[in-house]
Amino acid sequence: MSAVLEIEGLRKTYRSRKRGVRHALDGFDMRVEAGQVHGFLGPNGSGKTTTLRTLLGLIRPNGGRMAILGQELPQALPAVAGQVGAIVESPQFFPHFSARDTLGLLARAGELPQRRVDEVLEQVGLRDRAGERVKTYSLGMKQRLAVASALLKNPKLLILDEPANGLDPGGIREMRRLMRELAESGMTVVLSSHILGEIQLICDSVTIISLGRRVAFGPVEQVLAAHSQGSVRVRLEAVTDLAPAAETLTRSGVRVAATEPDHLMLSGVDKPAVVSRLLAEQGLYVSELTPVAVDLESVFLELTATAPVPGQNRQVDQSAKVDQTGTAGGWGA
Ligand SMILES: Nc1ncnc2c1ncn2[C@@H]1O[C@H](COP(=O)(O)OP(=O)(O)OP(=O)(O)O)[C@@H](O)[C@H]1O
């Protein structure tokens, strides 16, 4: 498979007198193969927008390399720009224009055939409201218009930041169908989203970023399989024993991936019997110990160390540094 998008060792450092030096991207890698729907995931402040803005030539990186369709950026940006459609920050539209006028204007500016306007209106489901003014549109309808504007030039690579934002469940399902259709027609789609269940349903592959570094990548099933191994759910006879149990296990080197109200999720457990022994030694008795298949949300929370902890309000950018051993480099590819 050929890569449509390649990023290697990308670095971006912000410096300010007040906040000092901040490594928004700290040697970040990403690779997206042709014809894939690829999920780009990371917690708030992890570097997603910085990556996408750097790719589009809006931010100058401090190091690393990037290529789109085999052409090195930023030098080749003018040559590849016509083949990349992107919505990275919510675009502003003239409120008194209709969707059809807006897209017509964009098509003329981009020297694209006017027939594309009706084609993309149909694709994003705005056909019947295309003549109404944008200011009368809901958030979800504006989101559809944004996607339509990115589709106008029939790009080879489509980059969408939070495309499901503001969409109702039906709209999310339609967006999912549209992404699949686009990929089937040969387009490569990169989606950043916080709706992890959606990403798991739509995407062929994912990249997870945390603190400016890639912490996982590869086909969705492979990322899930790598993390399902050794994932165990533990219930205790008394719910009040969960917190001391989490503490005991962590002290003994067992990874507690999440503390839920009525159970613990552990990862990397080779011998479940060790868990019950460790707990019993402390007078904590297990009522259930079950191997489980994890979902993308659990993997995300574990790798980015952003799972909620009872009694704590986790602060943005202060997530624990992710253990790089065994995770850096990722799986699959
Ligand atoms: N212009 C800037 N000056 C200083 N720091 C910045 C600037 N832009 C971004 N940052 C910092 O870089 C880090 C990465 O930000 P970025 O916007 O790329 O995150 P993100 O993953 O897109 O987050 P979100 O999911 O909240 O949109 C954050 O710590 C942010 O505060």
UniProtKB/TrEMBL annotation:
SMART domains: AAA. Residues 5-236 form the ABC transporter domain. Keywords: ATP-binding, Nucleotide-binding, Transport. It comes from the Bacteria. GO terms for molecular function: ATP binding; ATP hydrolysis activity. Belongs to the ABC transporter superfamily. This is ATP-binding cassette domain-containing protein. It comes from Micromonospora robiginosa. The lineage of its organism: Bacteria, Bacillati, Actinomycetota, Actinomycetes, Micromonosporales.
